[in-house]
Amino acid sequence: MRLTILCYICVIAELGITLNVSLNEQVIGLKNLVRKLPNHVFPTCHVVLVADLANFTSAENRCKRLPAMLSRTNKAGTLATVNSKEANDFLTLLFNAALPKHKQHRNTFAGTRWVWTGLRKTKKINQKHIRKVENRKPYNAEDWQWYDGSSPKDFENWNRGQPDQRPLKMGKKSSDYKHSGICKERLCRQNQMRLNHEGMWDDAFSFEEHPFACDYQGKYIVSAEMKTWEEAKAACEAAGLQLATVRNLDETDQLRRALIFFLGESGFDNCKGAFGNGKDYEHGVGQFNCVKVKRKKRWDPIHWAWTGGNDLKKEGDYRWTDGTVVLFEGFPWIANAGDNNGSKRKAKGQNSLTISKWGEFDDSYGHDKKPFACECYR
Ligand SMILES: *[C@@H]1O[C@H](CO)[C@@H](O)[C@H](O)[C@H]1NC(C)=O
Ligand SMILES: *[C@@H]1O[C@H](CO)[C@@H](O)[C@H](O)[C@H]1NC(C)=O
Ligand SMILES: *[C@@H]1O[C@H](CO)[C@@H](O)[C@H](O)[C@H]1NC(C)=O
């Protein structure tokens, strides 16, 4: 695949912003943001690629849990829907960035040469296998489904001769690759789809173990890289994102969850008085009643992340990077962000807004290095 030919200009009509980042650059930018994430997790605004090996059922279950961890939705997550050329190209690029082909085992059927997607056969799943290709019934797209219920009618990218629906008897290995899986049922069927480094599809047995891609339903991607506010802004933009905006308490909570997901717990996220106890947070009147926590630890930069809020243009006039006004009403400001009127946060020099893992906002010096939160364009 020629990666260089894929150039997309993301026009964000809603915000009137045009980002001139090619898809390939975006994937590289994203990879840089999440270098420190454990378990080989590569989140983007569309999909999260998890580079751990998992069978189809286990991958499905792990995708289910993602939205609750990343945002507040109770909706179960699903394996990724890749129902257009753009989505297929994007996942292919991401897969190549996360697990470069030349670094994987040379056998075509090695686990890391494929990634699970959310396409599986939902109709005629026990169809009799006809050995002779010329006698087989033609492939019917309607028998296969993405999790949104659609079938691959408008877009499909099956490898030549696939899906061949070759079954496997109990005790047999699926391929000549030494670590390939073994069928543990009376008869195993290739009713799941996997995608390779060229973006081509293959029907596969559910017991195979591959990396997997889940649809992403959050708003934020948080980076553990320590950067100044300006560097953070540039790093978000290099990945086709912008520094996070937070427009209400619901988004504050979503971002807080994303912070914990991407950066890990602070160890005192559930302290009394931390975010969640709204009445402690009148405008500029926060309380942090966590006796267990030493003051110094609370201010450890690893617990705080840059957002896009800043008053760089005009002292005291806080704006998000898209120019919209930061609304302070009902915001969980920390007690000392000002003199309890919020006025100190207009102090010169502290021009950039940070948010803590427990959901408090503070103004801070932009030259300090901290993790940072990027936002997906909506
Ligand atoms: C993107 O490119 C266009 C044309 O090349 C230019 O007019 C525009 O200012 C650029 N936008 C950004 C955000 O750099
Ligand atoms: C899939 O993996 C899970 C967890 O490792 C395991 O419990 C389950 O038996 C596996 N299923 C198949 C079909 O291999
Ligand atoms: C704080 O707010 C009160 C009431 O609005 C006001 O009287 C006082 O001057 C304010 N203090 C500062 C330092 O802005």
Question: Explain this structure to me?
Answer:
Residues 1-18, 272-288 and 337-346 have low confidence and may be disordered. The chain has 2 domains: 46-215, Mannose-Binding Protein A, Chain A (Roll), CATH 3.10.100.10; 220-375, Mannose-Binding Protein A, Chain A (Roll). The strands form 6 sheets. The protein has a 4-stranded antiparallel beta sheet, covered by helices on one side. A 3-stranded antiparallel beta sheet has the order 3-4-11, sandwiched between helices. A 3-stranded antiparallel beta sheet has the order 12-17-13, with helices on both faces. Helix content is 18%, strand content 21%. Strand 9 and strand 10 (201-204) form a beta hairpin. The chain contains 6 helices and 17 strands. The chain is elongated, with a radius of gyration of 24 Å. With 378 residues, it is of the alpha+beta class. The structure holds 2-acetamido-2-deoxy-beta-D-glucopyranose (3 copies).
Structural class: alpha+beta
CATH superfamily of the largest domain: Mannose-Binding Protein A, subunit A
How would a crystallographer describe the biggest sheet?
Answer: 4 strands, antiparallel
* Total individual domains: 2
Overall, the morphology is elongated
Which ligands accompany this protein? 2-acetamido-2-deoxy-beta-D-glucopyranose
Round the Cα radius of gyration to an integer and report it: 24 Å
CATH topology of the largest domain: Mannose-Binding Protein A, Chain A
**How would you classify the quaternary structure?**
single chain
Q: Could you spell the SSE succession in H and E letters?
A: EEHEEHHEEEEEEEEHEHHEEEE
CATH architecture name of the largest domain: Roll
> What portion of residues is helical?
10-25%
User: Strand order, biggest sheet?
Assistant: 6-5-9-10
**Low-confidence blocks of residues:** 1-18, 272-288, 337-346
* Measured distance between first and last alpha carbons: 29 Å
Q: For the record, what CATH class of the largest domain applies?
A: Alpha Beta
The count of β-strands is 17
